[in-house]
Design goal:
With 451 residues, the chain is of the alpha/beta class. It has helices at residues 61-68, 138-141, 145-158, 189-200, 214-220, 232-243, 256-267, 270-276, 325-340, 359-367, 410-417, 424-431, and strands spanning 6-7, 19-24, 34-40, 49-58, 78-79, 83-91, 103-107, 121-125, 129-131, 180-184, 204-209, 224-227, 247-252, 288-292, 310-312, 348-351, 375-380, 394-396, 404-406, 441-443, 446-448. Residues 389-451 have low confidence and may be disordered. The structure holds NADP nicotinamide-adenine-dinucleotide phosphate.
Length: 451
C-alpha cells in the first residue's frame, strides 16, 4: 500500500523528479564497477516510511567488500552505501516520530536501490531512522549508522543484554568486580561505539589497537588497551593476567584470525592457571560468548585445556533490526536520548574530496588500510562536481527499473560548454583541484569518472 506523502525540499523549491546517485554493478574485469546516474528516482512512500534528503554519507568496509566479493550487487546497477545524515523531506501518513525538516541519521538496509545511502534522496522506514541532536553536525551524524547500530544489535540482540540496562545515567566509575568484555579492534568504527556502550553498561573493557589510537580509545572508556602489533601469545598472556583469565564476552571486529584469538581467551586455560597458581572461580563453567563480526574462528577450541565452552554467536540484522520496528524504534530512542545527553559521541571523521565521485577512492583507501583507526571517511554530497551534470545521452540502466542512468557525454559537453572545456574528465579534475584525485578511466562508449 502506498500513500501520497507530503514532499518538500527546502520549503519553496520544488524537489527534482530525479536525483544523483552512485551506482555499482558487476562489470568486466578492468572496468570500474561504479558510475554516476543523474536520473535516479524512488518509489512512492509507504505510510510508515520517510524520504530523506542526504547531505553527508559515510563509507563502510561493507561497501567495498560487497563490490569486491560480489555480494549485495549483481549485473544490474544498484545504489550502495549504508550510512548517511540529512533531513526529512517527505513523511508517510502513519509516521508519528518525524516531521518535515527534522534532522536525521540512518543505517540503511541497502537491499534495494531506493534505500542505498550513496544518493541525494532515499526512502527509509521511520522506525529505522535516528534523530540528530542540535549539537551534532550532519558530518558527525553520518558516522553513527552502521557502527552504532551494529554495536547495538550485537549487545542487545546477539548477546541478549537487556536494552533497559543501557541507562546512560552518567555513571563513570565501574564496579570493582564488573565483568570483562574484550573488544578486538577497538579503533575500528564498530569498536568506537561498542566501547562507549559497554562502558555505559558497566563492563570493564579490554581492547587491542595501534599505539597511535590508545589515548583516544581510553578516552572512550576502555580500561586496558593493548598494542595490536604485539605477538599474539604475548597478547593472550596480557589479557589473562589483567582479567585473571576471566573474560566471558568478546566481540571481534577484525577477522577470522583474531576471532580465533578471542575464542582462545574465552575458553580460559588450565595450563596458564596452574602456572600462574591461580584459583578457579565457582561459576567458571558458564560458557564464554563470542560475536565474530568479520569472520568466524578458524580452528575449534582445544577442549583438553579449556576451562569453559565458547558459544560463537552470529549477528543478524534481518531477524532483529530491519523489519522489526519494536526493537529498532526502542534502540534508536535509547540512542537518541544518549546522543542528546552527550553520553555517546560520534566517531572522528575525515572528508573525502569530490562528494559522490570521491567514494570509490575513499573505499580503496579503506580497503588498503590507508585510513587511521577511529576515523570515519565521509563525503559531502554538495561536493559532487556539478559540471558533470551536463549530458545529452540517456540510456536505460538495469537499475531495478527505477529510472534512467545518465552518463557523461563528451560530445554534449563540447556542444554546451565549448571546446576549451570539452573533456569532462579534466573538468572534474579541475573542479576538485588541489585534492588527491586519480585519473579517471574510460569505459565503453561513455566516460566513467573515477576519483
Ligand atoms: N557482520 C556484520 O554485520 C558487520 C557489521 C559491521 C562491521 N562488520 C565488519 O567488521 C569489520 C570492522 O568494521 P569497522 O567499520 O569497525 O572497520 P574499520 O573502522 O574500517 O576498522 C579499521 C580498524 O581496524 C583496526 N584493526 C585492523 N586490524 C586489526 C588487528 N589485527 N587488531 C586490532 N585492530 C585491527 C585498525 O585499527 P588501528 O588503526 O588501531 O590499527 C583499523 O584502523 C569489517 O570487516 C566489517 O565489514 C561486520
Amino acid at each position: 500500500m502506498t500513500t501520497t506523502a507530503t514532499i518538500v525540499d527546502e520549503v519553496e523549491k520544488p524537489r527534482p523528479k530525479v536525483h544523483r546517485a552512485l551506482l555499482a554493478q558487476i562489470r568486466p574485469t578492468g572496468q570500474s564497477p561504479w558510475h554516476l546516474t543523474h536520473a535516479h528516482s524512488h518509489p512512492p512512500l509507504r505510510p510508515d516510511q520517510v524520504l530523506i534528503k542526504t547531505s553527508y554519507v559515510a563509507l563502510n568496509p561493507f561497501d567495498w567488500q560487497g563490490v569486491a566479493f560480489k555480494y549485495g550487487i549483481g549485473e544490474g546497477a544498484k545504489v550502495m552505501g549504508r550510512d548517511g545524515a540529512g533531513k526529512i523531506v517527505g513523511v508517510g501518513e502513519d509516521v508519528k516520530n518525524f516531521k518535515l525538516g527534522d534532522r536525521v541519521w540512518f543505517c540503511a538496509n541497502s537491499s534495494a536501490s531506493h534505500t542505498g545511502a550513496f544518493q541525494e534522496y532515499s526512502v527509509h522506514f521511520a522506525a529505522e531512522v535516528g534523530h540528530t541532536p542540535d549539537h551534532l553536525s550532519d558530518q558527525e551524524a553520518a558516522t553513527l549508522g552502521t557502527g552504532l547500530i551494529t554495536a547495538g544489535v550485537a549487545l542487545f540482540r546477539t548477546l541478549g543484554i537487556p536494552l533497559e540496562a543501557l541507562k546512560g545515567d552518567g555513571r563513570t566509575a565501574r564496579e570493582k568486580n564488573a565483568a570483562w568484555m574484550l573488544i578486538w579492534g577497538g579503533a575500528g568504527i564498530t569498536g568506537v561505539y561498542l566501547i562507549q556502550l559497554a562502558r555505559l553498561l558497566g563492563y570493564r573493557i579490554i581492547c587491542s589497537a595501534s599505539p597511535v589510537n590508545h589515548e583516544y580509545i581510553r578516552s572512550l572508556g576502555a580500561d586496558v588497551v593493548l598494542d595490536r602489533w604485539s605477538d599474539s601469545n604475548e597478547l593472550l598472556k596480557q589479557i589473562r593476567e589483567v582479567s585473571k583469565d576471566d573474560v566471558r564476552i568478546a566481540v571481534d571486529n577484525v577477522g577470522s584470525t583474531t576471532a580465533t584469538l578471542c575464542q582462545e581467551v574465552l575458553r580460559g586455560s588450565r595450563t596458564w592457571r596452574e602456572q600462574a597458581n591461580f584459583e578457579t572461580h565457582n561459576d567458571d563453567t558458564a560458557p564464554g560468548r563470542l560475536v565474530p563480526l568479520a569472520g568466524s574462528p578458524k580452528v575449534a577450541i582445544d577442549e583438553t585445556d579449556a576451562v569453559r565452552k565458547v558459544d560463537s554467536l552470529r549477528i543478524s540484522f534481518s531477524t532483529t533490526f530491519y523489519g522489526h520496528p519494536d526493537f529498532s524504534r526502542a534502540l534508536l530512542e535509547r540512542f537518541d536520548d544518549l546522543l542528546k545527553k552527550k553520553k555517546l559521541s560520534p566517531a572522528r571523521s575525515q572528508l573525502v574530496p569530490g562528494g559522490l565521485y570521491g567514494i570509490e577512492k575513499g573505499l580503496d583507501d579503506l580497503r588498503h588500510g590507508r585510513v587511521q583507526g577511529g576515523f570515519k571517511l565521509v563525503a559531502r554530497l554538495a561536493d559532487t562536481p556539478t559540471e558533470i551534470n551536463i549530458t545529452g545521452k540517456r540510456e536505460r540502466a538495469a537499475d531495478e527499473g527505477e529510472g534512467e542512468a545518465e552518463h557523461v557525454s563528451d560530445k554534449r559537453v563540447r556542444e554546451d560548454q565549448g571546446e576549451a572545456s570539452a573533456n569532462p574528465i579534466k573538468r572534474v579534475k579541475k573542479s576538485i583541484s588541489g585534492k588527491q584525485v586519480e585519473s579517471p578511466v574510460e569505459s565503453g562508449k561513455h566516460s566513467v569518472i573515477k576519483v
